[in-house]
């Protein structure tokens, strides 16, 4: 019987190698379309938008670096306002921004990451505006009013956007929830502003301040929920609700700060801590 002869491989033929995606693309969400070889469709390759190659002139006009990040964020927020959070995809955002899908995922791995970036930016802006106002206000009532109204002033043009993402902010398992682990840093920063606001009032004992700051933050969430749906002229009803609520808080603050209520304060703090809801610094 004749021996089986296996012809040698031609020196110019090499085994096909599987495409290796950049790390940012490997970590992209599962809805991305990647073929069996790990390749992106041609229209999603860098330098191509909607299936066509960009000209050199177009590429020069495209933002780069940190400018790209801000451009993507602004584009996403605009689409969230127009189409809603659920109705907008990362593909929509990349196409509208004039960037490849890979570039969008490089800066933001998901839509939720875009919302988290928006939260952080707004919190930084609010903290800066609040601290500037607090420097010249001596009494607790005026200081609290400055902090609360600064938040309203800052967000008054974003109410449609906030309504668009509101449905995804209630469950703690949602990344953009106000109670999620992903928003914990922004949550603590927001509570810290209220803590700074009441520190100047020596009538409030030090052990009562963290709980009062937590309560003020919770109050401000309720006020914002009303604010995003307020249809009154110049947000008059929201402004009145803020002022009335703060008047009540300032009237009740001495009672909350009473030494007789120290055990009650500790009990409330412990209850909130056990539930994972207490974020103020003790």
Automatic annotation (TrEMBL):
One Pfam family matching this protein: TetR_N
Protein origin, superkingdom: Bacteria
Sequence ranges assigned to domain HTH tetR-type in this UniProt record: 66-126
DNA-binding region of this protein: 89-108
Biased composition (Basic and acidic residues): 29-47
Keywords noted in UniProt: DNA-binding, Transcription, Transcription regulation
GO molecular function: DNA-binding transcription factor activity; transcription cis-regulatory region binding
Sequence segments annotated as region (Disordered): 29-69
Name assigned to this protein: TetR family transcriptional regulator
Source species: Polyangium spumosum
């Amino acid at each position: 019987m004749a021996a089986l002869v296996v012809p040698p491989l031609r020196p110019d033929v090499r085994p096909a190698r599987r495409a290796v995606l950049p790390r940012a693309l490997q970590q992209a969400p599962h809805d991305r379309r990647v073929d069996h070889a790990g390749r992106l469709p041609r229209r999603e390759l860098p330098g191509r938008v909607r299936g066509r190659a960009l000209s050199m002139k177009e590429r020069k006009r495209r933002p780069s670096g940190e400018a790209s990040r801000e451009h993507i964020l602004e584009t996403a927020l605009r689409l969230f306002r127009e189409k809603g959070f659920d109705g907008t995809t990362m593909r929509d955002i990349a196409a509208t921004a004039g960037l490849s899908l890979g570039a969008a995922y490089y800066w933001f791995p998901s839509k939720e990451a875009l919302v988290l970036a928006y939260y952080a930016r707004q919190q930084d802006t609010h903290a800066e505006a609040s601290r500037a106002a607090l420097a010249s206000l001596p009494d607790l009532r005026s200081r609290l009013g400055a902090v609360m109204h600064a938040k309203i002033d800052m967000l008054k043009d974003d109410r449609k956007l906030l309504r668009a993402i509101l449905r995804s902010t209630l469950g703690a398992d949602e990344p953009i929830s106000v109670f999620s682990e992903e928003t914990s840093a922004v949550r603590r920063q927001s509570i810290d502003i209220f803590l700074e606001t009441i520190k100047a009032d020596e009538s409030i004992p030090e052990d009562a301040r963290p709980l009062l700051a937590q309560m003020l933050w919770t109050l401000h969430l309720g006020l914002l929920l009303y604010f995003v749906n307020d249809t009154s002229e110049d947000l008059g009803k929201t402004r009145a609700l803020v002022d009335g609520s703060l008047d009540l808080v300032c009237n009740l603050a001495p009672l909350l700060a009473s030494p007789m209520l120290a055990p009650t304060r500790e009990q409330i703090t412990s209850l909130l801590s056990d539930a994972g809801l207490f974020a103020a610094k003790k």
